[in-house]
Every structure is written in structure tokens, then in C-alpha cells.
Design a protein that fits this description.
Number of helices: 16
Strand order of the largest sheet: 13-14-15-12-11-16-17
CATH topology of the largest domain: Aldehyde Dehydrogenase, Chain A, domain 1
Helix content: 25-40%
CATH architecture of the largest domain: 3-Layer(aba) Sandwich
Distance between the termini: 78 Å
Radius of gyration: 24 Å
CATH class of the largest domain: Alpha Beta
CATH superfamily of the largest domain: Aldehyde Dehydrogenase, Chain A, domain 1
């Protein structure tokens, strides 16, 4: 039987070499042949050195505006359904991951819509001030001198698999601050990055010469040590245990930006429950459907305040109807059997609790999604998939207490209504650790200006040089 072939690495021509072939079992349970560059610690060292040299030669004197222009052209190509690399990514990622083709295509659209040139420029302005500080010393009247920013000599990246197209952010941010990038693909999704690199090479050979995509077993201690020891700043996505292990093994001299496990939730106040809630229910359903609950921005529960014209149970029914529509637009992921069993077990437990007299219940139990009514409890991850928990609460002021125990893991909160109480709720949630507050329907649609995980990701990469020509006493 001939196995499908997946290319899981990419090196610029100047750094190319031998390749290896091995068998790969996908997250969806399929078998494939992986073709990737053969790596040894010595070869990783040579790749890292080559990237540093290419970065100094091709990026140092290049205006950041021209880098933005090329990255914009890459984004435009990935938004075009006829682009060969995009078409291949949609087909192969859907086959390997279990995500539907529609979801993969939609995720890629969302990723690159926020990565066009104007978005990149505004992100630099938001975090660095004048992007020209990456090109030369720029006058700063506030200090009576000039400032200049430098990116790392080499950015290392460890990619994730939960959102198709997301790993491009590591490469994009590195190139925006004029740094070459050595990035390791996720073992569960090694498909996207090599295809992205191919598009970049077609658009801008100089930028592509500053990128290498490698794929190796994360349990290979020698290769991991070589990888971590040769970068200046590591950007890593992963689960709690993965990132904890990386922190322990990262050389002290290497700076790092960590993107770990996070949780989202929603809040609907009673004044948002007046009359027709079809639009609200549709937006909530979209948030719970997007990425099939796999993203750090995916809500795990929606707290609904009692006392509105529409009850929490009635809103839950409206959400259930909308979930069915979104299943048609964005068909659900084909999760492994173990995850489907956990999903079913959670529903069975709710049904048993309901039979025992608790005010809980299963509102909808359909192929691809479920909507349940549950009691107020501490925020916790829902089963994998489109599992909507609607939790009635007497007052929105109760929400901070319900989510406080998971403060460090909080990410996004969508809020609907709340009138004069909303300002207080915003402050309370922000203090607890929420990094993004938005409206229903926008939970999974952050802009490039969002401080990802509360971090100024571009700013974190930059080392600043300040030229001061006056003493503080002379600057009133």
C-alpha cells in the first residue's frame, strides 16, 4: 500500500542536505510517510550558524517597510483559495488532524486576514512606537536623544497544532524585527510551516533564506539541547507539562516567550436578554464552534444572569439551534474515540444528576455538538469538542469569584450587556488575569494588536539602545 507523502521540514537551498523518510501516524489515525531533513546536533549547529549569517547579510540593512510589504503579499496569497500551498494545506491538514476542510480553510482565512500589511505596521507601532527604530537611530524628543531597536540574532520557535495556520505568527514576528528564525514543527501538525516557507520563497527569496523549518522527535534530548542552545530567544507554544520541561532545560542565557494552556468564557447579563436573542445565540454558537474548542481563545462556559426577559434555559435552546447551523457551515472535527468517549461520559453524568433532582440538564445532544445547563461552579475545561455549558447565575458580580482560581490560565472573556456594572466587571476580570475582553462572536478573532497572553510579543523580542545627550536635570 502506497502511503501519502508529507513534507515536514524546509531549508533554504544554501542550508540544504540529506533527507530521511519515516512512518507517521496522524492525530486522525491515518498513516503517512514523512519526508524531512536529516538532523544531527552538528547539522543543527550549521543551520543555526547559516541563518545568523543570512540574517546579518539580508535583514540588517533592509528597511522594515519592505519586509512588511513582502509579508503582506504572502498573506494575500494565503487568502487566495487558488494558491497551491494553501490548497495543499487545507487538504492535508484536514486529512491528518480530523478538522473539517471548511474549518481549516476558515482558520487560515482568520489568521491571514489579521496579518496583512496595515495590521503588521499597526502592531509594530503599538508595541515599538516608530517602526523605523528597527532601521536606524530615531530621534526621541522625550529624552533629548535617539533610540534604536535590534531583534535577536536568532529566534527559535516551537509550534503548536491546535489552530491551522497559527505557527506563521512566530515566523512573522521574527522577520518583522529583522531576526532569522529556526522553527520546529509540531509533531501533530508538521504540514503548514513548510508550505508557508514555500510561499515566502516564491515572494521574497531574501526573507526565505532567513527561515528554516525543522522536524524532530521532541524526546530526542541531544537534538533538543542543540536546538535550544543555538537560539537567542525562544517562542514556544505548548501544554503545561511541555512548557515546564522546556523551561527547566532552556539555557539561562536564552530569553523566552511562553504561550501555554489558557481558558476562555462568556458572560451574558440580564439586560442583553430582552426579546429576540437569535443574533446573540448565533454569535455565542460561533465562538463555541470555532476551532472546535481547541484554541486558547475558545470559551469553556457561558455564565447567564437570571432575571432577564429570556431565561438561561431559553437562551440555551436558542444556542442549540444555532449550533446546528454552524455544524453545517463548519462541520465538526473527527476527534479520536477516547475524546468522544469523554464527551459522552460528561453528558451521561449530567443526565444522571438531572435524574437525581439537580437543576441541570442536557438541552441538546446532537452529532457534533451538545448544549447543557449546569450549576455555577469553578471554571474548568470542557470535554474536547463543541460542548456548550450554560451556567445560570443570580448576578454577574458572581463571575470573578467563579473564575478566580484559574487566574493564571484565563485568556478571553466575551461580555454581553451589564450596563453600569460592566466597567467594574472589566476591571475585576483584568486583575484576575484575563488578557482580552470582547463581545460574543469575536472571542476567536483577535487582532494583531492584541497582546497575546498579555505579552507584547514584538516588544519582547527587541533590545533597545538609547542615545542620551543631555542630563536628566536639563530635561524638564
Amino acid at each position: 500500500m502506497t502511503l501519502p507523502i508529507i513534507t515536514s521540514g524546509w531549508l533554504p537551498a544554501a542550508l540544504g542536505g540529506e533527507a530521511e523518510v519515516l512512518r507517521w501516524r496522524t492525530a486522525a489515525g491515518h498513516d503517512a510517510e514523512i519526508h524531512r531533513p536529516t538532523l544531527t546536533p552538528g547539522r543543527l549547529d550549521a543551520i543555526a550558524l547559516g541563518l545568523r549569517e543570512q540574517g546579518e547579510r539580508r535583514l540588517g540593512a533592509r528597511p522594515v517597510a519592505s519586509i512588511i510589504e513582502s509579508l503582506d503579499r504572502v498573506a494575500a496569497l494565503w487568502l487566495d483559495p487558488t494558491t497551491p500551498e494553501r490548497r495543499q494545506a487545507v487538504e492535508q491538514i484536514a486529512w491528518a488532524s480530523g478538522f473539517s476542510r471548511q474549518m481549516v480553510a476558515h482558520a487560515i482565512d482568520l489568521e491571514f486576514e489579521s496579518s496583512r500589511g496595515p495590521h503588521l505596521r499597526r502592531a509594530l507601532e503599538s508595541e515599538l512606537g516608530d517602526p523605523a527604530t528597527l532601521d536606524d537611530f530615531v530621534a526621541d524628543t522625550r529624552l533629548g536623544g535617539r533610540v534604536r531597536g535590534f531583534g535577536p540574532g536568532l529566534v527559535g520557535g516551537i509550534a503548536s497544532a491546535n489552530i491551522p495556520g497559527l505557527p506563521h505568527l512566530i515566523v512573522t514576528r521574527a522577520l518583522l524585527v529583522k531576526s532569522p528564525c529556526l522553527i520546529r514543527s509540531s509533531r501533530d501538525e508538521p504540514i503548514f510551516l513548510p508550505l508557508f516557507a514555500r510561499t515566502l520563497a516564491r515572494v521574497d527569496a531574501d526573507l526565505a533564506a532567513c527561515l528554516a523549518v525543522v522536524d524532530f522527535d521532541p524526546h530526542d534530548a541531544a537534538l533538543e539541547a542543540a536546538f535550544l542552545g543555538r537560539v537567542d530567544h525562544l517562542v514556544a507554544f505548548g501544554g503545561v507539562e511541555t512548557l515546564a520541561g522546556l523551561r527547566a532545560r532552556l539555557p539561562p542565557r536564552v530569553a523566552a516567550t511562553w504561550h501555554g494552556h489558557r481558558l476562555g468564557f462568556g458572560v451574558v447579563a440580564r439586560d442583553a436578554l430582552g426579546g429576540d436573542v437569535a443574533d446573540l445565540a448565533d454569535r455565542v454558537a460561533y465562538d463555541f464552534s470555532l476551532f472546535d474548542g481547541e484554541a486558547c481563545l475558545s470559551p469553556q462556559v457561558v455564565f447567564v444572569e437570571e432575571g432577564g426577559e429570556v431565561t438561561p434555559r431559553e437562551l440555551a435552546r436558542a444556542i442549540a439551534a444555532a449550533m446546528g447551523t454552524w455544524c453545517e457551515r463548519l462541520p465538526p472535527c473527527r476527534f479520536p474515540l477516547t475524546d468522544r468517549a469523554r464527551f459522552r461520559a460528561a453528558l451521561d453524568l449530567l443526565a444522571m444528576r438531572s435524574a437525581a433532582g439537580e437543576p441541570v440538564g442536557v438541552i441538546a445532544d446532537e452529532a457534533g455538538y451538545a448544549v447543557v445547563l449546569d450549576l455555577p461552579a469553578r471554571l474548568a475545561p470542557a470535554p474536547r469538542g463543541r460542548f456548550v455549558r450554560v451556567v445560570p447565575i443570580p448576578d454577574v458580580d458572581a463571575v470573578p469569584g467563579l473564575v478566580a482560581p484559574l487566574g493564571p490560565q484565563l485568556q478571553v472573556a466575551f461580555l454581553e450587556g451589564g450596563d453600569e456594572r460592566s466597567a467594574r466587571l472589566h476591571h475585576d476580570l483584568a486583575r484576575l488575569g484575563v488578557t482580552r475582553i470582547t463581545r460574543a462572536g469575536l472571542a476567536g478573532l483577535p487582532s494583531m494588536m492584541w497582546r497575546h497572553d498579555g505579552i507584547a510579543c514584538l516588544g519582547a523580542l527587541v533590545r533597545w539602545v538609547t542615545e542620551e545627550r543631555t542630563a536628566p536635570r536639563d530635561r524638564a
